[in-house]
């Protein structure tokens, strides 16, 4: 007698070729960018070991559980678990820049960007947001490394459409990636004069937890202000991280990465970093 397989997922039943095991089902399942948990429950004959019934089903992450998960991973140093992500870090490691030559709409075969001198090198294969912060932006990919100080970025050929034109001064900003996990050396490896500033272990007041209802409404906000008087070196900063050390981070200490247009810290300017994480 074959096992009874119950799958609670409509696309599975519509598919011409169906997953044959739970691992394939997991790969098939569309998360739509939301936290997702999938269960496999099996009823087994204890005498023969044969699987009689199997259920594949998505689960719900409870509101209270989501907040507890955030609290156990990202919190102040006063919490009980070691290696909590309780620090913010800013650096100047990304080549955020602006266009020096406009790009018209309906232009095809674009393979290079004329830009203001890069404040940091940009590796080959980096995804850039052209038009960062504007309503008309698009992603382009570098096809060769661009050195610090370079005024041109080589990119994989792309085109603009009727609604995408970019004036001189348009922001060009490298994107963070889910694969980002630098060593301490790589943390400032793209810039000749690296700047790093750690918040230090953040106190309880830096963390605000809100237990809403449903996916995306369980929220954590972490905030810290970097000041020159507080020890942050004068300079333009382009990267922000959540880390679980207060100095000398190494590979494996980075949890969230944000890249932006340069923000300056000096005797007249502070930088307040606020990150919101939702489950």
Task: Throw out a few tags for this protein.
mainly beta; four-stranded antiparallel sheet; 279 residues; 3 domains; 16 strands; globular; single chain; 8% helix
Total separate domains: 3
The computed structural class is: mainly beta
- The percent range for helix content is under 10%
Shape summary: globular
The tally of strands reads 16
Largest sheet: 4 strands, antiparallel
Strand order, biggest sheet? 11-4-14-15
Notes on the protein architecture:
This protein has 279 residues and is mostly beta strands. The chain has 3 domains: 4-59, no CATH class; 64-92 and 195-278, no CATH class; 94-193. The chain has 3 helices and 16 strands. The strands form 5 sheets. The protein has a 4-stranded antiparallel beta sheet, with no helix packed on it. The chain has a 4-stranded antiparallel beta sheet with strand order 5-10-7-8, with no helix packed on it. Strands 1-3-2 form a 3-stranded mixed beta sheet. The model has no long low-confidence stretch (mean pLDDT 91).
